[in-house]
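Input chain follows. Return structure tokens only.
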Amino acid sequence: MAKGPLALGILMALALASPPVASSRAPDNAGNPLVIHLPGEDAPIAIPRQTQNTLSPELRSHGELSSEERQQRFVNTLLPLILTENARVLRERRSATMLLKRLQRGRSLRQKNAEWLQRLAADYGVTGDPLSEAKARQELLLRVDVIPPSLALAQAAIETGWGSSKAAQRDRNLFGMIGVVATSKKSKARRKGHGGRTSRLRFAHLADSVQGYVRNLNSHSAYKMLRALRAKARARGVEPSGSTLTAGLTAYSELGKGYVKLIKTAIHGSDLARYDLARLGPALDLAPEIASESPAAFGPQAYARLEDSSTL
């Protein structure tokens, strides 16, 4: 699907002009299934860990699987990747929240933690220094947050035809993402100020595509409205839903509002909203890069004291 400004904010490192290399990712506990907790289910479900580096070729064959089977297999492949990425982002959010609240109280941070907070702000494209600027702190928490699984699943389904497209099968591009590929030619893209030509991104691993997608929505200026809608939901004490956040995606496709309608149809038509409250087990800790600011800083009691809000 043709895109507007969506992926020009993707890091250049994600645009691979050459074939993708083998991923260095080593799945944790590769032999164990992922335990996923779904609302309304009496017991958690177990989904086999995805150790393959590509989507199943069966998703391209419409004769071997029914439509329902193809969709469920696609969900079973992507949902663990989405939940894993969201868990990583949530660890960053919890860590940032704790450190920012410490700063708000006028207390200092260890150098390692101060540097980590500044790197996090840079990674998410935040202007300003969160160590000294209140606006930068607020913007950081607006950006470091999860993407509802139903939204990610619906967009991936639309962009790849439930995993059947060449971009998904060959390039591991699950979200139709494009980026700028450096070139020495005076291309049309260069004349427009992009410094290169635009091309579909190629990823070394399916998980890299998910990470790039989440970072894109969390950092690109085109999705400022999506982040604002998410923050409003959190301020009301409501878990952000995929259907609600679709209004912030008019810039993702040249179809504009028509694209938003497609996403909503996919979410409701395939009952994807049930995955928005899905969680991986067991519970996750804070970002591993963080050094303890106090002996009991990272215990369950510390989490209970955190006010997880987009404003400080």
